[in-house]
Amino acid sequence: MNKPLTLLVACILFATSLSNAQSTTGTRGLVKAPTARMFEDGTLALGAAIIPPGYHKRTFGSKKGDIVPNAGLNTFVTVNLFPFMEIMFRYSHEINLPVTPITKYFPDRMFTARFKLLNETEKWPAVVLGMQDAVALLDSSNTQGGSPNFSSTYLVATKNFNYKGFNIDTTLGYGSDIGDIPAKEFRGLFGGVEITTPYIEDTQLLLDYDATYINIGVQKQFFKRLHTMVSYYPNYQKVGWVLAYRYKMY
Amino acid sequence: MRNLILTLLLLTASANLKAQCDLITPLTEEGFENLIQTNKDGGLQLHYENRRYRFEGLALQKVLEIIAEMPCLSNSITLVIYNKGIPVSEINTTKALIDDLIGGTISAKEFTGSSEFDFTTRKKPKQKTIQSSYLKSDLAVGARTDYLLGNFDNPIRWTPMLLPSLQSTIAKGTQINTTFGVVLYDDLYNWETSRFRYAFASHNGRLPGGIFTRLSAGYFEQTQYGIEGHATKFFFGDQLRLDLNLSLTENRFLDTPPGRRAIDKNYFSYGFKATYRYSPWTTDLSIHYGRYIFDDTGYTVLLQRQFNEVFIGFFMREVDQQIVGSFGRLYDRNYGFQFTVPIGTKKHLKPNYLRPKTDEQYTLDYNYTGGVSIGRRIYAPGTVIAELEEYYPSTLQRALESLFKER
Questions:
Q1: For B2-131, which CATH class?
Q2: A3-248: CATH topology
Q3: Tens-digit pLDDT profile for residues B118-163
């Protein structure tokens, strides 16, 4: 193998290992938009994400789908069940809203499955098919709370580049309705970048467009297991965060 | 005089050789049981049972380390692994491979690729067993959580409980299990009290042809009182598994909680299960069809991945009854996931007449649609068939590959 090619392969491998983002939705991704990256087989992530007031949407009742003044809390468990498959189970809570017969509020629960269709090569990006709120696809009439709140079916591609020591993981995806299930998130084109600088270890800058808003984030990993991200939502000038613990079961 | 010296030298050398290859002493000191070491056809056979380590993979790693420390002359080594005195799995390897694995010369993948892992067809040798596991008891404390998503009055109805249990192997394959449930809080059933959950005796066996069997009598979970039987046969190593279960029980409490009347009805339940294991991913796809213990008939499909001691599975059940879930909603099918995680210490105290220990696993079923009252089978925890996945050849291979990678 010639030297430039060796360097390119090394950069791709190096960059892949640095790509670490755990999005606010609970799956691998940028701030919110999903990517085509997956953790290693057998990786388990337990985490929570704060969605700031003015950004979180109500998941029940007559105001379902409206932005509400309460903050949201996504609690999730994500597992790479197979080398090609990531699954995520999430409860989405609205903070400061108790479950009572008067509020008729109940936290939303959802299940996401993502399948790796293509691995990244020198020329081609990694490609993932994502099915968010996937139980709705199986049994939409019986889904708790009626119609799904976060459903989305998307294809996303991610390719890594290296420029002057900076690793740039670029993502582009497209989400749409599937059957009778409307895409509530990532409808249309979405994408973004994850940039790793050579100057600060285990730290990345994230920028994404989730098909509705632009989001910015900075993330850092501690002890290879603890993941934190502070996110900023320019549209509402609000700050959120993600905290996740990762564990390798094998 | 010359002949006498020569004879003495030979005798000394012979004694040294025997001592060099004594695996029994270090394994006994480590707490392994039912130990037999034989030399047949120039090969060494070591039979052992582990109750010291929580996970059979960890126990196997320790056994290999002990063998590597010993300068045994036999190159061919066969390890036969027991549970409740029943030979279950075997590994055929060589001393050189073990030395290379422990010395780091070869990877665990190379070791497992060059050795043979399978269920054993061997019988227990006639030699005297060293450090028998019989008539020793474990006093363990586990935990359990029954729950169901509730309604707007009570979003999560749950009943957590502690499960102190006493388990003992009385003789080869024969065991007793008594488990008491200490209810910490109950707003799921609203009648549950601290009471016995299990009190049964089982006989585990292995018939010719490698069929594992179990016959149990006593009091089981779901307030079922009666007898149950189970047979398991493997094909192509652990790739294909067939199970047959039968039970004849009635609904009865050992100690009826106040205000709760047991239903006086006999239940004959049965089931057939076929499981395909994809060994590289230690993943099982199974389908169980049968009549379950609450008069419901149907099937359960389960896709489950095993990560050493962690199990994560997704199930779908359909029975000839509608299924009541949270908010009183009715479902035709029951979807959900289940997981089992290890709890407690990785290494227990040495087995003794009465040994306190932590329980080894915590299991939870999550019903995404539907409730908990369908598709229930008689379960006999702690028996050989209930613990078989730990002894699967592919589980042991994968365990070594991950444990030696960690070092």
A1: alpha beta
A2: Porin (2.40.160)
A3: 999 999 999 999 999 999 999 999 999 988 776 777 778 889 999 9
